[in-house]
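ENTRY TYPE: paired fold submission
RECORD: A
CONTENT: sequence, then C-alpha cells
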Amino acid sequence: MHFRFALLSSFLLGITHLSFSAEIDVVVGGPGVLKFNPSFVNAVVGDVIKFTMKQKNHTVTQSSFESPCLKVATGFDTGFVPVADTVTSQFPVVRLNVGSLDPIWVYCKQANHCQQGMVFAVNPGDKFAAFQAAATGGASTPSSSVAVSATASTTSTPSVSTVSTTASTSTTATATPTGIDHRVIVGGTGILAYSPSNISAQVGDTITFEFHQKNHTVTASSFDTPCRALSSTTTNGELGFDSGFIPVSDSDTVFPTFTIRVNDTTPIWAYCRQANHCGSGMVFSANAIEDGPKNFSAFLDLAKQQNGTSTPTDTSDALVASTFSYLHLWISAALFTILLI
C-alpha cells in the first residue's frame, strides 16, 4: 500500500510539470490611443503573443533595454500597419512565439510614438518602468525611427496594410496611387483555394484577399514548411502576416478583405490554417520563381505531402480539444493501472 501511494504521488507530481502554451492578447493602438495594452506581460517558452493592430498606423518592433526607441539589428519588425478609423472588426493580427524567458523589449517606430511611451515588454521583471522612462526621456529621435523604416523595407515579410469590408468581387488588378492592387478570392462555396493562387507583383503593389464562404485565413508561411505560420518557424525574427479566421456565411453578399503591401520582390508564401485546408492544397504565392526549384507547383506539392500534419499549433480548436481529450484518457488509464498495483 505504501509503495502504491508513493508511486501515485510521484505520478501526480510529474503531471504538475505538464503545461500547454497560451495565447496572450495585446492590443496595439486604437482611436486616440498611443500604447500597447497591456504594456507588459509575463510568458513562458511556447507561449504566443497575439498583437491586434488597431487605429492608426503602428508597428511592433524589437528594441533593447538600453535603447528603447531603436530597432536592434536582428530584431523582429512588423512594418507599418495602417488601420482606418472606419474599421471596427477583423483587425490585422501578428503573432510572436516566445522562445526563451529572457526579456523582450518592443516599441512602435511611428514618428515619436515611442518617445510618448508607446513601448511594450515580455518578461521585464522589475525593469519596465525604467524602460518606459528611458523611452520618454528621449532615448531616440523621430529621424532615427524613419531610418529604421528604410531597413525594414528589405525584410522578406510583407507588412499588412489594411482590413476593410467591401462588396466588390472583381479579380482584376486595379491601379492605386502607389502601384497595382491584385485581388485574390479566398474560398467560396465548396472551394478550398485562393483564386488566383499564384501571382506576380511589383514593389509598392498591394494584394487584397477577399474572403468568401466558409471560414478561412491567409497566413504567411515559408516554402519549406507551407502549412506552418512563418512566426513559428522563422530564425531571423520575422513575424509574418495573419488575417485570423474570417467566417463568411452562405447568405453573405458583402465580403471582408485583408490587404498586404509588397515591400520587395522576395517570394511570398501563404496558406489557410483552418483544419486540413492547407494539406488539401489551399496555399498561395506571390513572386515565386517559376523557372527554379522553389516554384508554386513545388510549394503546392509540398503542402499536400505534409498534409498539414506539421501544424499542430495552427489548426482548428478541434485539434486542441482532441489533444486534451487524449491526454485526459491517458492520465485516467495510467492512474487506473497504478491503483491496481
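RECORD: B
CONTENT: sequence, then C-alpha cells
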Amino acid sequence: MTMNRPSFKVTSDKPGSDVAGEYAAAMAVASIVFKDKDPAFSIKLLNHSKEIYTFGKTYTGLFRDSVKGAGYGTSDYKDEMAVGAGMLYLATNNSQYLTDAESFHQHGNQWGQSWENKYTASMVLLYQITKKDVYKQDIETTFGNWLPGATGPSAVPYTPKGLAYRTKWGSLRHAANQAFLALIAAEAGINPTEYRNWAKSQIGYILGDTGRSFVVGFGVSPPTHEHHRAASCPVIPATCSHDFLDMKYPNPHILYGALVGGPGQNDEYDDVRTDYVRNEVALDYNAGFKAQWQCYADVPPVPGGGIGQAPGFRLAKLEMFSI
C-alpha cells in the first residue's frame, strides 16, 4: 500500500490512559503466555506492561482528546485501566494492581463488551480473582439484560431467529463478545448451564443454524463479498483501486474464518461489499467469536471435563480480555 500511514503517540502532556491500559493488559497477558516458553521475552513484556500502566495511571486522560483525528476514541479510560491492572495482578501477584483494578471498575449493569466499553470484562475478571459477591451481582445484572425474556429499558432485543441484537453496526460482534464472556462467567460457576446454552445459541446463529453462515469460507451460503480491501483486490501483479469496491463478483481471495458485521433486526442480510455496516470485517468483530469457538473446539472428551479446563480456552480467555 502506498498511502500515508501516520503514527501517533501519547505523552505526559497529551495522555491516553485508555490506550495505556489496553497495551498494559496485552503485554501482561503475553508475559503469562511466554513465561515458560521464552522467559527472557516474558520478563521484557512484563516490564513494559508495568511501565505503560504506571504512565497511564500517572498521566490520566483520553486518547481522543489528546490526538485529534487519529481514529476511534473511547469516552472513558477506567475500564481499560481496570483490565490492565487486573492482568498485571495475575502476572505479578502484586496486590496493588488488584486494589487499582477494583477502584477503576464501575459497578452495575453494563452495555456490553465492545471497543468502547470493557466493564463486562473487568467484572468477570475481578470475580474470577476475588469471588466477591459484588462482581457476581454485576455479572448477573448485565447478563440478565442480555438473555431472552429480559424486560425493561436495558433489555437487549432479539431478532425473530434468535440473535441478541444490541445495535445494527456489527450486530454479530456484540453477541459474540458477550457470549464469550458468558462462557467465562459460567466457568467461574455463575449460572453455568444457562450461560453456556445461551452462548451456544449465539455461536450457532453465527455459524448457520438458522439457514446461512456469517463466516467467510464456512458453512451454508457464507459471505463472499465481505467489505475487506485485501480480499476484494485482484491477484497480484494486477493493481487495485477503489473501483473494486463496486465490483459484483465474489472477492478474489477467501478470507477464511472472518466474521462479518451481521444482519438487521429482522434477520435481513445482503452480501454486498459496499455495506460496511453489515458486511465489514474487523478485529473486534472476530475477537470474541474466535475465542468462543476455540473454547468448544478444545473441550476435553472426558467425563466431567469442563470447557474451562481446555488449554485453548484458558489462552483465548486471556487474549480476549486484552482486546
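NOTES ON RECORD B: Residues 30 and 45 are 7 Å apart (CA to CA). The first helix runs from residue 17 to 33.
STATUS: closed
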